[in-house]
């Protein structure tokens, strides 16, 4: 039965029962009222009239008004005949009253009136007794019938009270529990309600939904598993070692290549804490260095040396933070990191070969260039023979070119020494002024040639700096040489030394062409030259400067306004 029908039937039955109870009570009360009314109207009044008649009779004949009172009560009694025999008795009273009216001293008639009155009273009293019995019976019937109806109402109401809430609440409770199961992804949950009510219909819809969800989740799980396998295979087949760690710094995956390189088994690494692994394995310590939690948002690039493939191999470490936006949320959540080791050994080998080649070539070039310069020097000497103007000009050209060739060769040689690690730093307390003097002296001719004024300013009290004076002087020379080269004629190049906190800042400021903002970031890259820059350079000077300064623990940078000039500067620790 439907819940709605059930409720209608239950409440309807209760309503009917209450209505029946009220109707029965009303009927019985009415019945009892009728009984008492009939006693009052039919018998009590007759007794009253008879009594009044007897009182009036006693007054006769002394009180003439008594006749009237008797006649009035007699008339009333004649209109109130209700019992069997009452008519006859009343008739007798009326007949004897006629006799008394004619002869007020007729005692026989009076006595007959009394007798008839007596009969009349007895008749009515009997009737009262009888009717009272009937009323009692009605009252008893009412009590029984109303009690039965009341008990019936109570039983029905009690049954409904016990069953009806449970009938509605139990299925809802069951359904709520099942919905919670579905929310917890237990899609096998089903509900079963017997009967054909709304809940059974709801249960059917619920079961259909659960079935579809189950089917969907299984198919999705299948897809997810397949996608997972695909990604695992992909990661496994990558030629670069890849290791994944979760947000708790536990290794969650490691590919074949990483296992090969580290000579470990996956069981030794998987689900192990990074800290614990780093403790027992030097290589893993290097690999997991800077694998941090929580995420810093930084990416690290390192070169790690690993003995792999039966030779020394070089790997560039790249640590990538993995952040996701969880479903239903908006903020990014850090869920781990992926460490990718890029095998850069072939590039390193090529780089080394190139460095060696450049080193050898520049070294081999130095001797012939020196010989050329020597010959030029000799040719310029008048003792060997005088040259005409045109020959002298050609000789000057050869000198300039050989000078430039020598400078380039030296720069290339320095670069190869930096690359191969052949350069040894000698950092100690170095006097500032000699380094400045060296840079100015080395560039004096070029400055004069271009009419550029070199202005040196040293801050008060600055004398010494922690530096390798040779390398620092080289950098300053390079800065000044660039400043002159990229300055306009008749301008000033400032060389400043200032104290900034615990550091000393060396700046070379020119009023030249400046550098376009888009090239600023690349200016310290090896072989980089601003497109359209004056020819003759190698693009190596600034990159070597950067290596020299950073190797001493310093910092190098540039500020430039395109068209207005540049300021190249570096910081070193003050001594
Ligand atoms: P180069 O031998 O070409 O001077 P550098 O490494 O010294 O090589 O400089 C790289 C490039 O930076 C130069 O080619 C030039 O375009 C730019 N540059 C360097 N110094 C200055 C400067 N003072 N003003 C403008 N551009 C400069």
UniProtKB/TrEMBL annotation:
Specify one Pfam family: PAS
Cite the EC number.
2.7.13.3
Q: Which SUPFAM superfamilies match?
A: ATPase domain of HSP90 chaperone/DNA topoisomerase II/histidine kinase, HAMP domain-like, Homodimeric domain of signal transducing histidine kinase, PYP-like sensor domain (PAS domain)
Membrane: is it a keyword of this entry?
yes
The subcellular location is: Membrane
Ranges for domain Histidine kinase: 360-575
Taxonomically, which superkingdom? Bacteria
| Keywords from the named record | ATP-binding, Kinase, Membrane, Nucleotide-binding, Phosphoprotein, Transferase, Transmembrane, Transmembrane helix, Two-component regulatory system
Molecular function GO terms recorded: ATP binding
What is the enzyme's class at the highest EC level? transferase
Name this protein carries in UniProt: histidine kinase
Species for this entry: Sphingobacterium oryzagri
